[in-house]
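Notebook entry, structure prediction.
Reason for the run: the old model in the group folder had no record of what sequence produced it. Starting over properly, with the input documented here first.
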Amino acid sequence: VQLQASGGGLVQAGGSLRLSCAAYGNIDSINGMAWYRQSPGKQRELVARFHDKSAQTYGSFVEGRFTISGDNAKNMGFLQMNSLNTEDTAVYYCKLGTSWGQGTLVTVSS
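New structure, fully documented this time:
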């Protein structure tokens, strides 16, 4: 399984970004896909996990600002991020099973 994350960039505080993760290879389902993030000097932390269309979990810091979704027909996962703040600046990684994407950088300016 290979994962390719995209959609990062520079955004002002209060803005939005939508990250995408494309899965390639022997994919049974994208249920279980998760997004993690890592800031300099900090440990990688879970942002959100897509269990299925009716169940998702989020890190406590999300506070309703992000939405994770997935499209099994296209083997794609998404992370919609709204109301971004400077503390959201990090490299964001998607994960499925034991496979990690390459990361996409999100920079939020004040």
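Summary: The mean pLDDT is 97.
The old model has been moved to the deprecated folder.
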